[in-house]
Write a structure and sequence with these properties.
It is built from four helices and seven strands; from the N terminus they run βααββββββαα. It has 188 residues and is α+β, with helices and mostly antiparallel strands.
Length: 188
């Protein structure tokens, strides 16, 4: 999955935010803690709900291909106990655009265990939402959004949640966990 977020801030400010563990903690959905172990290694504890499964992942994050202030590659691996494991990464690169910065990203994610049984569509939709939320929050921290941007987000929010809830209901039915109404004539 590929995306971009325009941030109304200089490239150096965006780069510094991408490397600040407190900013990362605020941006990573469900992040309870993140600790820098070395200049290129971090440890994190993240609690997420993916469809009907809620789990905490304890994992390791590695930064590579570091090219300040232009970007890096980030890879992570986490264990969610009985729910399964998650592994993923992102190539992040920054491009100056006038006084702003375009934060580009290409993300990949893989899951195993119970999480893999949820289906590729739900996993992909969740991964996209988590990535979009992360980069939007990062942009908001570096350059707080205008009232107009906040109004647009508020207007689109309910539609996205209805779509996600519909996907979750469909997955539950496929896995036998949802209820379905009988169709046809029961008398035969």
């Amino acid at each position: 999955m590929i995306g971009a977020q325009r941030v109304n801030a200089p490239q150096q400010a965006v780069w510094e935010a991408l490397n600040d563990t407190e900013v990362l903690r605020q941006c990573i959905p469900g992040c309870e803690s993140i600790t820098r172990v070395s200049p290129t290694n971090l440890e994190a504890l993240v609690t997420l709900r993916i469809g009907p499964v809620k789990t905490s992942f304890k994992g390791a994050v590695t930064l590579s291909d570091i090219n300040p202030p232009n970007g890096y590659t980030i890879k992570g691996e986490g264990n969610g106990g009985s729910a399964g494991q998650a592994r993923g990464g992102a190539k992040v690169w920054l491009v100056r655009e006038g006084g702003a910065t375009v934060l580009n990203y290409a993300v990949n994610a893989e899951v195993s265990g119970k999480l893999a049984q949820l289906g590729a569509r739900l996993i992909d939709a969740t991964a996209k939402k988590l990535a979009d939320d992360f980069f939007e929050k990062l942009g908001d921290i570096v350059a707080p959004p205008t009232a107009e941007v906040l109004a647009i987000r508020e207007a689109r929010g309910p539609f996205i949640w209805r779509l996600i809830k519909a996907l979750v209901r469909g997955i539950r039915r496929l896995l036998g966990g949802g209820t379905s109404k009988p169709t046809g004539n029961p008398a035969g």
